[in-house]
């Protein structure tokens, strides 16, 4: 037994020494010094001991290094209002000693410039004669390296590891490595809003994260392996770059072995012999699988492991890469994966990492993100103007997620493409580094230069860029940029033109805000002349009110000081107790808007897909709370992943409705179809439909047994239902289910009976002396206003629309709408004949489209609206849509909604008026908060 234990001990020591002979970890304590004056190079800091210490991997701010945030802090990224602290919305809460920056998450410290990191390392004797390099997996961003006082080089990739060959600079024994990291935009401006560097997102941090190590290899070793699997032939082609660091040509053997990872079963093996010269050589290898290749896709992400080993008399080298057999293609009918139709249901990853301020380099954290994404029915992620570390690709490979990667740039505003600036060459260099580093991953299916380019010559530049990569590497699809331009050379297109229900600058003229609720429109007209797939760019951007309970989650280097400011503002406006209600009510509207956006894309024949902005909140650019998940990829409480998957999934039942509000004498008709992009066609299914009110089914049926092919616009049949005359308003729901997939749409039915005006109630559109006399005599008044009726200082300047806020008001120049829907008590007797939830639903579209908000900040705080309009979190005004008050001996009900004009064509307004008059005629209408004549007059223009 003692002999066995001794043997095991010796084996473990040998294993450790073998491992140490290949790699020396450099994580731990490093010497450190700031170089804010840029004197480190001239003063030869690379040959001196530094004053301080930090721990790596890590950032400066994680180590408590940098400067405190002040009003004069210089940020990386555009700021719409540089003197924001003078703005009336922020000035009351501004404290120069405790700055709460309103436009993004705030780091505890800030530093932009050069910083030095130094470390002593001992090279073992058994590394003599080997190639040695320094690996810095994710520095940010430009590094310059000295070894023993001699310069090893400089690198500036934002996407890939910085690797320095230091063979000629090291000695056996003790060595000193100095790394100068500079996070300024100097020689190359990738665009100050690029998510690879901007403080809007991951922060422009300084430091080094991920693997930090010295690595060694024998004289002859692989520099890279590029794997090109061919599904049709079952053959794997390999382009291997072999580095022979000796001065002589050498005879080598290379063995290639392929295994299916999930079973570890050998799938192919082959040996080669070569004579290679000194220096770098490219050798072409191939390996034929001994079985039919299993494919990689979102449903069954089969991965293969390829091992290549060099053997020669003086040593050996081995490298392994994972790959998958997949063909991702596109044409005028959309995308296909391995010959099967697919539809990209994507979201953006905007480099938002609220704990660290930089991306994780471990697979576990990326699996958490992709799990959240897949649980919401998505299969695709676009990395907006940045490229993630290796771990993201590994996780996506294993989970079957399609990735679009970009070359670290948003060349707009602070720079431009195609104008001869250094960014032009940088894009080519960065794209080559990305493809070399991550190109074998099957999840890496798409690539673009970056986001929304600027400059007069970007189209010419991007035309050449796309053509170059299509010729260089056909393992993925290429496009110019996210947003524009659309050119024939691209393999697919990304644009927002005519493929969204709300576009930049459309404001209240957008589809969702200008067209009565329906589900018949799609984007066929916008893509009819395209020969390549179209993916709609950054759809959604629907905001929700902040979740102030989220503040306590920010336990890392970033703090939600913006949320703290907004919370102070809400309390100052006497609504602090409503925070949770505002979140939930606005969240329900946000989810409704996303459902409308996504379903429109799914209804479009031959459409390629969509990219949401976003599933996760974007805490920068003015604070854009556009996610149904927070910055930590966690739910907010108003829609579950299961509910989201009803309208966002591989299979989604759809209904085309001409309208959503009906009178009792009408017939309901819905054309039912399905978007089906599952693993295979559906055979012998019977789509089922039902119409129900609350829990009670009032009609149901099937659409007959049928087969459903892959694709969308698959017509299943028609639902026709004659509404019963019940002489009462009601909300009904149409639900369609196909196997385990279901989706639903709310509709409203109102009686067709005319309005009967109760006695002693006057309905007016203005305040006149006779109205005030009526009130003085104890009468009742319904004051019907409407769009354009309220004075600007009393709410008339608030842009009211049905939808939620698009992106946010601070960053869109105040684009309308300025509001986040309604909040009400659905049990209030004033709404008894106008069925509603506590939040906006489609029956409120008419009211929000024909109304002004009424601002109550100058009135008594005990004046509580019956229906509130939820204001932007930046201004937090007390806004009413419907409220009541006492005037003299009389009572007045004030409606910001027009309840007088064109009611024959506005059944919702007609029914709301009936409900309000019914309430006013009852003894329950008894306002207690009094308004003066002058206060009333201040409301109306």
TrEMBL record:
Gene Ontology molecular function: beta-galactosidase activity
Any Pfam family matching the protein: Glyco_hydro_2_N
Domain (Glycoside hydrolase family 2 catalytic): residue spans on this chain: 336-540
Keywords noted in UniProt: Glycosidase, Hydrolase, Signal
Gene Ontology cellular component list: beta-galactosidase complex
Enzyme class: hydrolase
Listed SUPFAM superfamilies: (Trans)glycosidases, beta-Galactosidase/glucuronidase domain, Galactose-binding domain-like
GO biological process: lactose catabolic process
Enzyme Commission code(s) on record: 3.2.1.23
Protein family according to the UniProt entry: Belongs to the glycosyl hydrolase 2 family.
This protein's name: beta-galactosidase
Lineage start: Bacteria, Pseudomonadati, Bacteroidota, Flavobacteriia, Flavobacteriales
